[in-house]
Description:
Helix content: 40-55%
Distance between the termini: 52 Å
Mean pLDDT: 84
Largest sheet: 6 strands, mixed
Low-confidence stretches: 1-19, 35-44
Radius of gyration: 25 Å
Number of strands: 16
Amino acid sequence: MTEESERPRRRRSRSRRRRPARLRRALLGALVVGSLLLATGGWIGFRGWQARAHLLNAAGLARELSAQVVGGDTDRALRTLAALQEQSGAARAATADPGWRLARRTPIAGDDVDAVRRIAVAIDELARQAFPTLLRTDLTSLVPTGGRLDLARLTAVSGELSRVDDAVQRTRSDLAAVPADRLVNQTRQALTDLRGEIDRLASLTSAADQGARLLPPLLGANGPRRYLLVSQNPAELRATGGMFGAYAMIEADKGQVRMGKQGSSASLGQFNPPLKLPAETRALWTDLPGIYPADVNLTPHFPTAATLYREMFRRKTGTTVDGVLAVDPVVLSYLLKATGPVLVPGSVPLASEKVVQTLLNETYQRLDVRQQDAFFAASSAAVFDALFKKNANPKVLLSAFDRAIAERRILFWSARPEEQRTIGDSRMAGTLPEQDTVPTVGVFLNDGSGAKLGYYLRPTANLTVGECQPDGRRELRLRVTLRSTAPKSGLSESVLGLGMAGDPYTMRTLVSIFSPAGGSVLDARLDGTEIAMGSGTERRRQVATANVEASPGAERTLEVTLLTAKTGVGQAELWLTPTASPWTTQVHSAASCDP
């Protein structure tokens, strides 16, 4: 967190530990959804009723298994899993006899019968290939104890997690290959919901697999490593989450991790001539990201921001690091649920319920700039020590990491290309992809006030999939609302900052809308009035930026119409700047455009 910022800017780490309860619940969710929904879909004949009964039994067993896994009752969980496998296997067998195979070829019901069969197989594959391995895997070995991680155990776990991920990814591919357009509503909804559960599970198992494979080298298995841990400050928004404020050197060797030198972005100074920027970034933000450390993440593409910050640190200190890890105070609130309150010498304890308020608001209200830097450094050290040296609750800790990564609040970039390729396009990488599987609209926020008013922002976003266009594109309608809960008086100079909106209590936010890859931004209206927006491109996405100012208590609404690239799908997704208070979002899907 820290003071000094020069202007607007933007926002996606890899301290990747595993998450047993969350991972297992996701897998169980897939089993339950598949079982319950298929039980209501178009079943045929006597064998269909047999399969229905077996899948209903499987749903009940899956719920029992969930409670046992979360409660750590491994012996009972293994017995329940055996019963679950019996029921899912019976459902699979009931949809495999000659009569069922014949029904799959009928012109009217064949597509639905085939889909039911494939879903029954998917549930059985998960019950037999993914869950047994997951129950055997000691995922608590992925959390630190006594200031270090056991790299040998971590390596052993890696093989187990790879097998789980292989099984889940195969199931995901099999379900993705089922044509859904001609299915009856019940079967199509069952398939859609199960796909959603499997997609979420596949994301988790893929990240778990990547983390277990990457953590040993990242933590110094093959030699010492050094990283920059930077704290993003959502009180002064940037596209990736917040201005890079405080930083700390993290040193890792053979699993032993310690915190070294700390400082602030302000201490790195300015860089003239500016560092070289990608042409698209410079066209959007001039030379700002190459001059000011506080502005490197005006772009939402985290690898660009991390590369710039690493080079600035090298030029200032002469030290070259192996990567950059970014977190924000909301991440600390999640981690403190696992560690319990942390005492900061000479100050108030940091507790999960109040740490965001303490770090993003109260500190700026009651301390001067020098005291703020000292408090932020002491707080970082205290939380780091608690995380690595305290015996935190492993399940809560892994769940905290999972949630933070899902919200793009933990971002990691490695300076080693082979490691960065392994991280790929995961949420931790913060990579703005140049291709979309599902059309994705980015809404990225950069502070334009030079103040710490982002703490008072309450954002919402609604995205609606619209009409199919003759050229194969699709219209999208986006509605973004920014509401200021800032008071009209009583804030300190540290909070009010430069007051670049004129009235120091008015929040100025630069809202950048990124079209889907290969798409475009058509028009925009602010509170119903059409406005011109600054425009550019980044990574095959058209970018349009609007200046939105909100006085205390005011709400401003930005409506934007976009086009996708050619696509047949009726889904869309949002990628948002993580904020101090979470976004309220809704995405309205539509039918496919495919004939």
